[in-house]
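step=encode ok
step=design start
structure_in=
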C-alpha cells in the first residue's frame, strides 16, 4: 500500500470515529489542541503551490537549485557528486513512494514517518547509514523550505533516523602490509598509490588530485581532491594541509611520475587527467590473494582501509599526540582549529617525521 492509500484509510477511520462518537465540549477542545499541536490550525490552504516531487527535483538540480546557489555564494562546501547522489535518492525512493501529485502543502510529519518505516523491509538499502542518506535527501530540502518560509510548519521536526553500528573496517596487520610491498607488483602505479595511502593516510581522491607541484622535498601539500563530476576541488572539510614524509627518494619518484608541475602524479596516457582509482583496489586484492590471505579479508578490504591502517597504527605507536595525528589525517574538529595555526611548529614537524620513520622505515628499505 502506497503512502496516499495508507493516509486515506487512516483519515476515513478517524472521520467515522468522530462522526459516530458521543462527543462532549471538552472532547472537542482536546481535538482542537491536537490539531494546533500538529500545526494544522489555522487551516493550511491546500490545492496550491509546488508538488513535493517538483520541489525535491529542483532542489537537487545543480544548475537550478537556490540551495546550491546559496551555498556557493557563501563559499560553503558542496560538490556536484553529493548533489547527484541526493538527486538519485529522490528519483529512486521519494518520488516512487509519494508520487508526482502530492503538494508540498499536503505533506505532514506522519507521512514522512511512514516512509521511514518502510525501510524496515526495503530490499535494496541495507545499512543504517545508507537508509539515513536516502531519508536526508528529502528532509534536508524540507527543513530548508521551512526556514526560508516556503512552508508553514517543519514537517521534519521530531523524526527519528535509523541507528546501527558502522560497517566494520578491515585493517591489515603490519606484517601482511609490509609483505605485500616486499616484491614488485604487475601494476607499478597501483603499488605506489597503495603504498602512499599506507604511509600518509591520504584519501583516494586526494591521491588522484596530486600534481607535480604538490610534492615537496620532505612533504606532500594536500591542496585538492578529485572526483569525476567536480574535477579538482578543495579537500574534504575545506582545508589544505601538509603531510610530512621522511623518505626523499619516494617523494622524488612521485615527482618524476608526474613529469611536470601541472601534471598529475597518477595519470595514464593523458598527464592532465588522473587515472581511475578502481585499479588500485583491484591490484591490491590480487597481490593479497598471491600471499594466501584469507578470502573473506580480501573481499572486505578497501582502498580506504589504508587510511584506517595509518591512523590505527600511528595511534597505537604512541609517537604522536591525537592533535598532531588529526593534523596529518585532516579530521577537522573545532578544538583542533583553535589549537593549531596555519602551519605546524618546527618541533611538531620533526616529531611527525620521526614517527613516520619509526613506523615505516623497515618497509621503505626493502
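sequence_out=
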Amino acid at each position: 500500500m502506497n503512502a496516499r492509500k495508507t493516509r486515506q484509510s487512516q483519515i476515513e477511520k478517524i472521520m467515522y470515529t468522530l462522526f459516530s462518537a458521543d462527543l462532549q465540549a471538552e472532547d472537542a477542545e482536546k481535538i482542537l489542541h491536537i490539531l494546533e499541536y500538529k500545526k494544522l490550525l489555522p487551516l493550511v490552504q491546500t490545492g496550491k503551490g509546488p508538488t513535493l516531487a517538483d520541489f525535491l527535483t529542483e532542489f537537487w538540480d545543480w544548475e537550478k537549485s537556490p540551495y546550491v546557489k546559496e551555498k556557493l555564494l557563501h563559499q560553503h562546501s558542496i560538490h556536484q557528486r553529493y548533489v547527484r547522489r541526493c538527486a538519485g535518492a529522490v528519483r529512486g525512493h521519494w518520488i516512487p513512494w509519494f508520487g508526482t501529485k502530492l503538494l508540498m502543502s499536503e505533506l505532514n510529519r506522519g507521512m514522512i514517518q511512514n516512509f521511514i518505516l518502510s525501510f524496515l523491509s526495503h530490499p535494496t538499502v541495507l545499512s543504517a547509514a545508507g537508509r539515513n542518506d536516502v531519508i536526508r535527501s528529502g528532509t534536508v530540502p524540507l527543513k530548508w523550505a521551512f526556514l526560508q518560509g516556503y512552508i508553514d510548519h517543519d514537517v521534519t521536526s521530531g523524526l527519528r533516523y535509523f541507528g546501527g553500528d558502522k560497517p566494520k573496517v578491515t585493517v591489515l596487520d603490519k606484517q601482511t602490509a609490509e609483505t605485500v610491498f616486499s616484491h614488485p607488483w604487475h601494476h607499478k602505479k597501483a603499488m605506489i598509490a597503495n603504498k602512499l595511502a599506507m604511509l600518509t593516510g591520504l584519501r583516494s581522491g586526494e591521491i588522484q588530485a596530486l600534481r607535480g607541484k604538490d610534492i615537496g622535498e620532505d612533504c606532500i601539500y594536500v591542496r585538492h581532491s578529485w572526483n569525476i563530476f567536480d574535477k579538482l576541488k578543495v579537500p574534504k572539510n575545506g582545508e589544505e594541509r601538509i603531510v610530512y614524509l621522511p623518505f626523499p627518494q619516494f617523494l622524488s619518484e612521485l615527482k618524476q611520475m608526474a613529469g611536470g608541475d601541472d601534471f598529475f602524479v597518477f595519470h595514464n596516457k593523458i598527464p592532465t587527467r588522473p587515472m581511475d582509482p578502481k585499479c588500485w583496489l583491484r591490484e591490491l586484492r590480487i597481490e593479497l590473494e598471491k600471499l594466501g590471505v584469507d578470502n573473506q579479508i580480501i573481499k572486505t578490504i578497501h582502498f580506504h582501509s589504508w587510511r584506517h591502517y595509518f591512523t590505527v597504527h600511528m595511534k597505537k605507536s604512541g609517537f604522536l599526540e591525537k592533535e598532531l595525528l588529526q593534523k596529518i589525517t585532516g579530521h577537522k574538529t573545532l578544538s583542533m582549529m583553535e589549537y593549531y595555526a596555519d602551519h605546524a611548529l618546527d618541533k611538531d614537524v620533526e616529531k611527525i617525521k620521526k614517527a613516520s620513520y619509526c613506523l615505516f622505515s623497515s618497509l621503505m628499505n626493502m
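step=design ok
step=annotate ok -> Residues 333-345 have pLDDT under 50 and may be disordered.
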